[in-house]
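To start, one record:
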Amino acid sequence: MFRFNINKIRKFLLFLILVVTVKQSTLQSWLRLQKENGEMKIYRNQNIPFEWSFLDTSVPAVCGMNKCFFQDKDDPARGYLLVINYHHDKENNLSVGWERAKLLKQKYGTRHFSLSPPEKVLASDELSRFTNEIVKKSRNSSVHTLYSEVDTKQFKNKAAMNNIELTTIKMAIGNGEKPREFSVQKMNKAPDPFLEWGDKPKRMVRSKETFKLFNSTIKSRAEFSKKLDEEIAILNKTLDKEAWLIIDFQIIIDQRGLIYHIDLDRNPNLIVQSNSILRKEGILRFLHQISHGVLSCQSKLSIIFNDFNVVSID
């Protein structure tokens, strides 16, 4: 007959429990569950360090003058914002924007899309040259072009470093030199379709061009108008306290009439202009006219733009 050693069995069971516990804690640190449309889906946690393999190469990057947004391959509702302009990034602007976003949320309930603090990723020489060209093209584009689409595969391929380049970077770091890096930040993706607006000419033109489509997809115009009017009242109080937001003002409005602030790393020195009261009045008037335009089912924003041009800046 077999003899069972109770102590050995107990130790073995404790070992199995320990192994299972460690694996579960590891998985929980890497994965998160999210309920969508009645189904539980598994996504990567937000605290996992950025890797180029996280990007969805089937969806092009959307690039502005200083940054590009990439969709997450595992979670289409989220993505990554990469600063491609080195001069814009050297002041750690994304870190400034992150701190501002948290503070505005705490004080006024301000909505934004940032999910976590920015982090740094090493930039290969080839990727640096590639992003420099994107920045140059954006600055030389016409006033009507706000964003451009760039193949995500190109970013991913040019970000790859060979052993020689990696060794060179490690040696430079060892000698106390600062390597070339880009800031990248995990973000929620804006709910599509949305209306983006700001008081610079390019953003005005983009709003005018996209308003008809945005307006046509709103399900309840009365509810949208009511909610947007409530949001404007909150914004009015926020701008009274945070006048620096007025300069290069930028927001996104979703289908429910909710306002989200974007590009909070702008105006790093918190400059307040002498005509800020006039500019604030123009911003609020414009937003009220969007509310009225949706409620009355307008298809154009030309009158709104003509009214607002008196306080717009170049």
Q: What stands out?
A: The first helix runs from residue 6 to 30. Residues 22-36, 303-314 have pLDDT under 50 and may be disordered. The radius of gyration is 24 Å. The chain has two domains: 52-188, 195-311.
